[in-house]
Amino acid sequence: MLAVWVEQLLGFASGALKAIRRDERYPALMTWAREQGPALVGGNLPMAQALAPELWSQTPLERLGFACEPLARPGRNEPCWCDSGRKTKQCCGAVRLPGPVPDHLMWMLSLREWKGDTLKAALESGRAPAQALLEAGLIAAETGQRGRAQQILESLFERGDWSRLPEQAEPAFEILIDLYQERGFRHKREALLDAVLEQGPLFLRGVALERLCLMHLDADDLDSARAAFVRAQQALPHSPTLAYIEAMLLLHEGHEEEAAERARFWFRRLARQGELDPDQLEFLADLADNPGATLALAEQLLNAEEDLAGPLASLQALLEVLPTAPRLQITRSDEGRLEYHQGERERALTAAWLACFPAEAVSESPLGLEDDPWPAAGEWLPELCAHPEWLDAPAVLQGLALALTTRFGSLPWMAPSLFVPLAERLERWLDQAAGEGPGTLAWDDADNALLLRTGLALVVGMERGARQRSRRLAECLLALDDHDSLGLRELVLDQLLRDGRDDEALAVSHPPAGEELGEAALGLLLGRALALYRLERQAEAAEALEEARRHNGYALALLCADSPRPLPAVAGDGVAEPGSRAEAWQYRTLMRDQWRATPGALAWLQAWLDER
Question: What is the pLDDT of residues 139-152, one digit of tens each?
């Protein structure tokens, strides 16, 4: 019965609003209510007459600067406000409505209909009830009106009076943050997060911190992500979302066993509270049993909206049973250079793959694709699964590795099922190359770039979720390409530092004799300094710091700073200019967690700076 009433009320209110907008005068509304209104409420004329004055009193009028013109509610023996001429008790006062009439209904409907300058002026008037803004914004977002949704929801959160914010504002806040992200309004997103964190209500502050933590994870800024998570714990200690975020954070940090242990803690704690529904409890139980697999399944479900869940599952199943890769045509020249040459079969397999895969590698970029292949993934993924022999061609493996890295490379839980099987395939070919004897597998020789680019994509894809495999593959590539054309030396150094293998890290920080440090100079010098500090060789560590400071004057102070303002992402190929603040920020993002986790390292670094 209530559902019927809600449907009737919305239909009647929408009709009443159109009647009001004709001249914004009360008599015109009542004429409409008597002539056309009954048809919208089951033919009930008294109900139509009783509803009209209620809706008029809450309708914003453009002629009054979007203020309402409420009617004085008459007494029982006074003339009825519907202008029938009868006493209220004999007219509208005798009508019992089937359900309540929300006092923000006409504002909400008006916000749904107004456009352009009228909508802008209505929002700037500051008269719209918060609940009306909330509901109108959510409806606009659900119906794909992103610009309108952003405009309305901005008005909800820009008022400054957080006490007026409805408790249901949490999904609206998340939608607005997502809209800013999708539409490229980075500064607006950061300003909203800052405002909520500084003065927003507690329930929104926790959500903002959770979103901030996820944003830092997406940017690979693990140190900032950890700090945001700790603040979120303090703000919302019983939020079940924290269990999911902490598991993600620990997996990003490479602590899979601890992720499972913490997930078990969250499951026991939240299960005792008895406030979660069965689906949430089941998810936490699965998370405790196997965090990586559970988050990978969740990723598939997230992709279900794009019809990718099935093809992704098929790809993972295929990679589990992929047969051993065939040998390639790899030779060793008289000058000792290793060369891979594509065979006829590999060229034919590649041509079949490129007929459905809509992107090719950018020749000048180690990890670039000319186009985004994922909008068409519903076509090429099933084709690949139907033709597993395509993966016998390094060019096909290259395209798949690049595509997976661009989409899933930042998600540690996707590495075991997607990247590790491809790495095993590539390692067989690299072992074959190494078996030809000493020599260099140079990027510019023959078709070597196919193997090297694939290797780089897989190293990056496994860096978070399969660190040991990532380092092993990187070391194998470095051994074959001693000129380090892929820039893997810094990556291997970082992974060795994370594993506490400081002697090996120190050795890797020195390139071969006669080789320059190159673009990775800052990372190699600071990695060398950290390894030497851990090995208690502080005098040598200070020398490495001095070299690092000469290379980049921003890096050391930025590394010590607790809460510096983030820099915008580097445009283009993502490589920061040597010596720039952007380069310093990139190093801080990637490695500050290791400096902070090394007892006394940041204090020593700050003291070294203070002396100068």
Answer: 888 888 888 989 99
